[in-house]
Amino acid sequence: MSKVDLSVNIGSLKLRNPILLASGTVGYGSEISEFIDLKKIGAIVTKSISLKPRKGNKPQRILETSSGMLNAIGLTNVGIEKFISEKIPYLIKQDVPIICNIAASTIEEYVECVKILNEEEGIHAFEINISCPNVKEGGLQFGNNEKMVCKITEKIRAVTKKPIIIKLSPNVSNISDFAQVAKKEGADAVSAINTIIGTAFNIKNKKPKLKNITGGLSGPAIKPIALAKVFEIHQKVKIPIIGIGGIMNWQDAVEFLIAGSSAVQLGTVNFIDPTASLKILNGLMDYCKENKIDNISSLTGSYQLD
Amino acid sequence: MSKVDLSVNIGSLKLRNPILLASGTVGYGSEISEFIDLKKIGAIVTKSISLKPRKGNKPQRILETSSGMLNAIGLTNVGIEKFISEKIPYLIKQDVPIICNIAASTIEEYVECVKILNEEEGIHAFEINISCPNVKEGGLQFGNNEKMVCKITEKIRAVTKKPIIIKLSPNVSNISDFAQVAKKEGADAVSAINTIIGTAFNIKNKKPKLKNITGGLSGPAIKPIALAKVFEIHQKVKIPIIGIGGIMNWQDAVEFLIAGSSAVQLGTVNFIDPTASLKILNGLMDYCKENKIDNISSLTGSYQLD
Amino acid sequence: MTITEAQIEEIIELEYNIHLFKVKSPEIANVINPGEFLNIRISDLPIPLLRRPFSVCDVEDDFFYLMFNTMGMGTKLLSLKKPGEYLDVLGPLGNGFNFEGDFDRAVILGGGLGVAPFPYLTRKIKDKKEISTFIGGRTKSDLITYGLENIHVSTDDGSYGFKGNVVELLEINFDNLKNDKLKIFACGPTPMLVAAKKFAEKENIECELSTECVMACGFGICQGCPIQSSSDEDKFLLVCKDGPVFNSKEIIL
Amino acid sequence: MTITEAQIEEIIELEYNIHLFKVKSPEIANVINPGEFLNIRISDLPIPLLRRPFSVCDVEDDFFYLMFNTMGMGTKLLSLKKPGEYLDVLGPLGNGFNFEGDFDRAVILGGGLGVAPFPYLTRKIKDKKEISTFIGGRTKSDLITYGLENIHVSTDDGSYGFKGNVVELLEINFDNLKNDKLKIFACGPTPMLVAAKKFAEKENIECELSTECVMACGFGICQGCPIQSSSDEDKFLLVCKDGPVFNSKEIIL
Ligand SMILES: Cc1cc2nc3c(=O)[nH]c(=O)nc-3n(C[C@H](O)[C@H](O)[C@H](O)COP(=O)(O)OP(=O)(O)OC[C@H]3O[C@@H](n4cnc5c(N)ncnc54)[C@H](O)[C@@H]3O)c2cc1C
Ligand SMILES: Cc1cc2nc3c(=O)[nH]c(=O)nc-3n(C[C@H](O)[C@H](O)[C@H](O)COP(=O)(O)OP(=O)(O)OC[C@H]3O[C@@H](n4cnc5c(N)ncnc54)[C@H](O)[C@@H]3O)c2cc1C
Ligand SMILES: Cc1cc2nc3c(=O)[nH]c(=O)nc-3n(C[C@H](O)[C@H](O)[C@H](O)COP(=O)(O)O)c2cc1C
Ligand SMILES: Cc1cc2nc3c(=O)[nH]c(=O)nc-3n(C[C@H](O)[C@H](O)[C@H](O)COP(=O)(O)O)c2cc1C
Ligand code: FES
Ligand code: FES
Question: What ipTM did this prediction achieve?
C-alpha cells in the first residue's frame, strides 16, 4: 500500500499534517510535550500572546457543562518579551512549527506584536485572535465588527509576509461575512471557531458560577455548531479554513475536513487526553488507507450534497 | 407553611405558573396529554402554524449529538384552518392556556394568521417564530434582520390586542438588539432561544446526516449558551423574557429564572420524559418553600453580581 | 402508553453481538401487540440523550423480550446492563401487524435483525395460520432463528442456505406457496422492504412492512419520523404513530 | 507524569458516602509523594467530560489509595465502580508536602474530606517525627480517622469531641505542643485554611496548605486554576502545577 500524503497547504503555510493544537489549550508546549512528541504534530498554536503580560481573570475560571466546558481564563499570558526569550526557543528545539496566536486591546497593539514577532525565525504563521469572549477589550468588540476585522487584517498584512490566519468568532449572524472580509484584506486563512459565549448560575447563592460571569463554551457540545460554521464559510468564501470545535477523535477530525476544513485544531480534548492528537493522527492515516485516499487534502470540502 | 404563589405575569399575559411547553416539541397537545394533566401546566405553545399546511422536510430529520439533538423538521403543520377546527377545541377542553406560535414566509402571512387567530377565544397569546433555522423562507432571513423584526412586530401589533411574544434567534451577534426592537414595536415579551444552527456529516458517504443539510441544535448542550442570551437581554432591555434551551430538570428551570426569565419553556426534554414538566413544577415549588420564596416571580433576574 | 421501570429478568446471547433481554413488566406484556414497539431510556445522563426504539420481540406471561444488536453508543450501553437492573420503558407505541385478516399462510420475511418482531407474531398466529418464514443475512452469523417456525434461510455471501437475498429466496420458493392465500409480513433494511413491496404488488399479495426511522419521541410529538404517503403526495405519515407497520400500499419507500 | 490504566483492587466504605479505593499501579505508587494528586477520567463518554482530581491518600507496595465522597456526577459515577474495573489515571501531579524540613512535630489539620492526603503523609513521617492530628467535621459521621495517628477531633455540632472547628481545637491544645518545633500541614475547606494560615502566622509556625480549585487539565496547560501569589500582586500561581500544596506565606486565600 502506498503511503498517504498527510501534508496540507493553508494558503502559503505548508504543514506536515493537518492536526494542530489549539491556542490556549496547550500553553507554550512544554507540559504537553511530556505526553507527545511534538515533532509529529502539524503545528502548535501558542496561547494568545499580548504585548504585556496578562494576569487573567480571577477564579473560578472553569466550569463543566453537559458535554462541554466554559472557560473564562481571560488571556493569561507571559507577554511578548518572555515569549520570545523563553517559549519560542523551547518550541524550536522540539522541531514543531509554531503558529503564534496574538491577542490585543487595540489595532496598534496587534500591529506592534506582529512587527516584533515577524523577526522571529521559528514562527511559521500568525493566528489573530479577534474572538476571545472573556476579555473586555480586544475580544468580541473586534470579532463581531466587520470593519474592525477589515482594519486589523489590513494593518497586519502590511507588516508581515508570513501567513496570517484570522480566528473567527462564532458569536455572529454570518461568519462567512467575516471570512470574506479577512480574505479581501489578504489573510491566508481563517480558523473557526473560537468558543461560544455561555454562562451558568449557582442556584444556592444566585451568583454566576464563573467569576467573569460569562465564559466561552468548548468541547463536544459545540461540535455541530462549529461544523455548520465551517460549512457556511466553505460554501460562501474561497479561503482555507482551519476547523475547530469539539473534536475528540479521528472521526470528528474527518468530519471537519469533509465539511470544508484544510486542517483542524484540537482544544479541550488535550485536557482530557493529552495524547489525543497522536491518536487522531493515526486514525486519520488509517481512514485514508482504508478509503484509498492518497492525499489528505482531497478530503477538504468533499461533502456530497444532492 | 404558607403556599407559594407560582403565578407569573408576562406583560399582560397572566399564567398560573412559569412552566410552559415549547413550540414544536408537544405538537398540539393531544399525545402528551396521555402523560400529563395539561391543566397543571402554565401554558402550551403550539407547534408553529402557518396559513397553509406544510409538509416539512424529507427525512432524516433528527440526529442525536453530544448532549443535544439536531432537528430539521421544517415547520410541518396542519395549517391554520385545521388548527382552528380541530386543535384549539381540544386544548380548550383540557383547560390549558394556549400560546399560538406562528411561522410565515412573508410579513403579510404573519399578519393574516394573527388576524384570523385573533378571533379565537382560546388563544391567550401569540408567539411569533422568526427564528426557525430549518426553512428557506420565514426563518432566519427574518430573525437575523433587525428591520424585519421591527416591521413584523409593528404590523402584528396593529392587528391584535393579545400579548405578543417574539421568539428570538440565537444565531445573531447581539440578541438584545432584537429584544430592543421587539420592545420598541410593542411586543409584550420575547422568548429565547430557538435552536442553534448545526450540522453533521456521515464520514462513510460524505453526505450531510440531515436531508436538510443543517438543523437546529437543542437540548442540554445549548443550555449555557441559552442562559447567556437570556442574561444578555435581561441586562440590556426591560422586557419580560421566556427562557428556553436545554432545561432538563427543576434546577435548570431555577437557573433560567435567576438569569432573567419570567417563565421557561421545555422542549427536547418532553421527548425523553413526557412527564418532565410536572416534575419540574414540583421541584420548583419545593425550591421556593425551602428558600422561603413566597412569590416565584421574585426569582426573575435575581442574580447576584459582585 | 405509559412509562414504567421494568426489571431485566434474564439476558441471553443469541449470537455474537446479538442480545435477547427478558424483561418483567405486566403493564407492557399484557397489552402490547406484535409489531408494536418500546422506546427505552438507556441512561439517566444526557448521553445517550434520546430514547432508543425497539420492537417487542416476544411476550410470555408478564415478560416481554427485546432482541437487539450493538449499533452505536445506545445499544452498546444497553448491552452492558445486567439481570436485576431496571429499564425505563415507554410504550407500547405504534401500530403493529394486522394478523387477523383473511389469509391462510403468513409469509414472514426478516432481513438481519429485522427478525426481531417475528417471534411474537409467530406465537400469536401459529395455531390459526400456516407460516413460512424466510430470513436472510449478510453471512451465517446474522441468521437468528429464535422463536421462528418453518424457516428458510439465505445469506448474501452464501455461507449458509441460499446465496442471495431473502426476497429472491421467497421467489424461488414461491411455487410451493402460491396455492395458499398469502399475506406477507416483512421487516428489515429498506432495500429489502422495497423488494418485498415490489414482489407483493407484482403477485398481488397483501403485504405489511415494518419500517424504521431515526426517532426522537416515538409517540407523535416531534414530527421527526416522516414516511411518504402513497395516497397523498403532500403528506408524510409518521413511522412512530401511523406505523411502524404499514400496509405496503400506504407508503412510498 | 503518565497516563495509566490502573485496576481497582478493593473498595472499602469508611463511612456513609465515603469510599476508599485500593488501586494497583506500580507506575504511580512507586513515584508519588504525599500531597500530590491524580487526575482521573471517570468515563469514556463525554459526561463527565473532564478528569476529576483526587489526592493520593496512601501508598502501600504497588498500590495507591484514593479517599473520596460523592459530591456530584463524577464522584457518584466513580463510587459505582467495582473491584476489577480499571481507572484511567493521569499523574502524579503537582507539588506535595515538604516534610523533610527542620521540625520535630507535624501538626496535621484536616477538615472533612481534607484528611484525604494525610494517611500517606503520616506513613512517611511517623518514624521520624512526632505527630499530632486534629480533624474536624460538621458532625460525627464526617470524621474519618483512617490511617491517622494521635488524633484529636472536633465537630461543628458538638456531636463528637470538641464543639467547634479544627483550628479552635488546635488552639486549645496548643499549650501541650508549643514546646516542640512545629510544622502545620492543613487541608480542608478554604475558611479552615484561612484560619490555619492566620494561626500559623500569629504563632510563627511553618505551615503548608493543600488547596483546591476546579481544574480542567491538572498539569498546567489550561490556566484554569489560579491562586493569588502573595509576593507578586500581578501574579497568579497555578494550584495544579505550583501547588496544590503551598507554603502558607506564598499565597493569599
Ligand atoms: C420502530 C423501531 C423498532 C426497532 N426495533 C429494533 C429491534 O427490535 N432491535 C434492534 O436491534 N434495533 C431495532 N431498531 C433500531 C434501533 O432503534 C437502533 O439500532 C438504535 O436506536 C441504535 O441506537 P445506538 O445508540 O446504538 O446507535 P446510534 O449511535 O444512534 O446510531 C448508529 C447507527 O444506527 C443508525 N440508526 C440509529 N437509530 C436508528 C433507527 N431508529 N432506525 C434506523 N437506523 C438507526 C444511525 O443512523 C447510525 O448509523 C428499531 C428501530 C425502530 C424505529
Ligand atoms: C488537588 C485536589 C485534590 C483533591 N482531592 C480529593 C480527595 O482526595 N477526595 C475527594 O473526595 N475530593 C478531592 N478533591 C475534590 C474533588 O476533585 C471534587 O470533589 C470532584 O472533582 C467533584 O466532582 P463531581 O463530578 O462529583 O462534582 P461536580 O458535579 O463537578 O461538582 C459538585 C460540587 O463540587 C464542587 N467542586 C467540583 N470540583 C471541585 C474542585 N476541584 N475543588 C473544589 N470544589 C469542587 C463544584 O463546584 C460543585 O459545587 C480534590 C480536588 C483537588 C483540586
Ligand atoms: C481553557 C481554554 C483557553 C483558551 N484560550 C484561548 C486563547 O488564549 N486564544 C484563542 O484564540 N483561543 C483560546 N481558546 C479557544 C480554543 O483555541 C478553541 O478555539 C476552542 O476551545 C474550541 O475548540 P475545542 O472545542 O476543541 O476546545 C481557549 C479554549 C479553552 C477551553
Ligand atoms: C423537534 C423540534 C421541533 C421544533 N419546532 C419548533 C417550531 O415549530 N417552532 C418554534 O418556534 N420552535 C420549534 N422548536 C424549538 C423549541 O421550541 C425550542 O426553542 C428549542 O428546542 C430549545 O429548547 P430545548 O433545548 O428545551 O429543546 C423545535 C425544537 C425541536 C427539538
Ligand atoms: S418520533 Fe417523534 S413524531 Fe415520530
Ligand atoms: S488545571 Fe489546568 S492549568 Fe491547572
Answer: 0.97
